[in-house]
Amino acid sequence: xxxxxxxxxxxxxxLEFYKKYFFTSAxxxxxxxxxxxxxxxxxxxxxxxxIIKLNKTKYYLIPIKAKSGSWSEDTFILTDExxxxxxxxxxxxxAANYWRLTDQIPMQIDxxxxxxQGKMSLLNTKIIFHRTTKKRLKNSCAQKISGHxxxxxxxxxxxxxxxxxxxxxxxxxI
Length: 174
What we know:
With about 170 residues, this protein is an alpha+beta fold. The protein has helices at about 5-15, 25-30, 35-45, 75-80, 90-100, 155-170; strands spanning about 20-25, 50-55, 60, 90, 110-115, 120, 125-130, 140-145, 150-155. It contains six helices and nine strands.
């Protein structure tokens, strides 16, 4: 709690009490008098590493019980929150591992989406966003982890992906 202002402690405590680990700046508005104060509080919490920015409007709260500031969250839940639950699917090695088609633990999470592309590193997890079309997202299904729904490539599509990977690996003689 060192280095946090009274207002910051109040906001973090409220968010944690109501289990709003994923929140928007609108949730902070209840504690501020204007946009400038809200901006400064969010900026300071980011700098103090008490929150992490997920997208333009959403943040993740590092719980108070994370004394050292390090914390982990399920990567599938993080991905769903980053994408606001729409127009994406988790695929690649992460999907193959989820469906138990491989024992290989994925080094990264491959996310196919219509919204963005690029790389992001959050809570020691590397997430790679690949641009795709809505048509290609149709081979996904909704699954749940800890009561949270996320989109993942179907088991059948993951099996096909694994077959294509095996062909590549055999042709390279790996």
